[in-house]
Amino acid sequence: MDLVAAFGLQILYGIANLALISLGLAIIFGMMRVINLAHGEFIMLGGYTVVVATNAGVDIWVAMLILAPLVVGVIGVVVERLLIRWLYGRMIDTLLATWGLSLLFIGLVTSIFGASTATTISPPLGVLTIGEYTSSAYELLLIGITAALCIAVFVVLRGTKFGLIARGTMQNAEMASALGVSTSRIYMVTFGVGAAISGLAGGLLAPITGVLPTIGAVYIAKAFITVISGGAAILAGTVSASALLGGVNGVTAFLTGPTIGEVALLLTAIVLLRLMPRGITGTIFKKSL
Amino acid sequence: MTLTRRNFLAGASAAVLAGPAIIGRAQAADPIRFVSILDQSGGLDIYGKPMVDTTRMAVDEINAAGGLLGREVELKVYDPQSSIQFYTQYATQAAVGDKADVVHAGITSASREAIRPTFSRYQTLYFYNVQYEGGVCDLNNFCTGSTPAQTVEKLVPHTMNKWGKKVYIVAADYNYGQITAQWVRKFVADNGGETVETEFFPLDVTNFGPTIKKIQAAKPDMVMSALVGGAHVSFYRQYAAAGMNRNVPIASTTFGVGNEHKLISAAEGDGMICAYSYFEEIDTPANRDFVARFKAHRGEGAPGLNELATRSYEGAWLWAEAVKQAGTAERMPVIEALRAGLSYNGPSGRVTIDPKTNHARQNVYLAELKNQTFDILEVHEDQPPADTLLVCDLVADPNQSVFMFENGLEAAGIEM
Questions:
Q1: What is the pLDDT of residues A247-284, one digit of tens each?
Q2: Contacts of A30 (CB under 8 A, 6+ apart)
Q3: Inter-chain residue contact A110 with B267, CB threshold 8 Å
Q4: Of residues A10, A119, A122, nearest to B210 (C-beta)
């Protein structure tokens, strides 16, 4: 029984982890159709923000929850203004430009901080005991924050004027423009929000995975697989794809081993895209966000 | 200057006139060419950068002492950017283009296997200064790093006596991790213990939650880790975050070689026991002097020294000593000098080339991690490369250039 509870929590954490690293990309790629190959580096920069800030004496909670999204959000806005806005609708060019951007970020961070970086911040909060099993209480917190983040994105997109205008702009920019919306500003803010969420993810994961200039590569493939499997509806898609892929990965990893766990995740994504080429929300939950 | 016909002719004729003089000088003091191919960018740079630093230092010291045979040693460093494709490209460039007298290259076994045939084909002397899974049997290739039979054989009984006989193995899912895990299983069984589970991880896994739960369910006495690379450092963090490091201690032959012990906090790392042929904390005059020289040479921000970095330095010196003994930098005389049982007393102690395998007999140290530094527990001197000796005898048959453990230990005929 303890094992079931401890393991259930572990699977939930795996799902939350996938959703957390994918949500920012879901906004930038899923909503704005910008193939952002620098997504992993946005996460990495969030992690570095936390490491630098805590080394400078900033409280870890402030660093993770406020500074990381703020810094990466600003970087996102700058990137959008300088690079991305010239390339809307040119998918292949965007792909090349963001790939270059990713290499630039890795190179910059490596030359500033070196190839390996001490992340001596331990995950805050202590150990959570479930019968004979122990987990990190921090993992539980991450599940909670991811859930809260998804709800926040839902509320903003569904309930606020900005959300309505942003969705409208993404659906038909010319029409939105004709109605007096400054689409350029909407694109900029949306990209910044996507980057900020990626930065938050990186900041939150820094204490538990550590940071390296090249850590982005670990996240980017999984984030793209999750978002593409999820399909057009960014929130329902990301959550349902994370639940499916994270669940399959967790159960298989526990029953066999991590290698087969990764294989199962990829296999599920391939089969899913064969059966539902437009992702989960291209077939079911069509009307959702 | 724009290139007109007139000044082109003037330049060309000047070059022709000056030509013979330049060639004449070059013959008198032609430098000896030393090429290093090590990753300084990409995922493997945490290993490669310190190795390049120490190689530079060795070459600088050799030149400061008057060079070799009155000739300067010219170091050329290539950065293959953690990409195998660049390794093969630069290996060919070093052998054919630069006509290198010696090449020190490669970090992963995959990179070594990509370039080793190139150096055999072009008859370019090749050093590989990295701890690896053992099994290379190649007259042209000197493997100076430690192998599992040297480190794991000492680490397993020591930690089993200390912590208990039920062992859980976690390892990186490629050649090195797989073969090291086989050696761990063998030495656990030889010492009367039991391996409860072996798990392999692709190099990009960062969520170790399911495994930590499995370790809790299996209740081992200790965990043996052969995890590799930046992403796998997460294991130690998550293990500590779940409070496991206080209950089930970890031993490793891979933790620390990328200076991982400086990357995680003291609370997360304390109590781990590791085995290598070198630790920065070795308390001998030779090593204290070496560490001080390295800090002075590298200056601000000098990285921590580990087996890979220090063996790169010692490897360069082993080659230099062989050149001195041979009286030439030519390949075959240098190989013979090395295989005559050449020794070098370096910071790690005495390193001796074993002629049967072209591997190194070397000291092995066991150390416990305390407050981000290693506290040396035991020294085992002059350990032979027993694993490679099982499958390789270059004295009996020098004309070999093979990697015996390519398909694991059983395929090489080793009973497990």
A1: 999 889 888 888 888 899 999 999 999 998 888 888 88
A2: A227, A230, A232, A234, A237, A238
A3: no
A4: A10
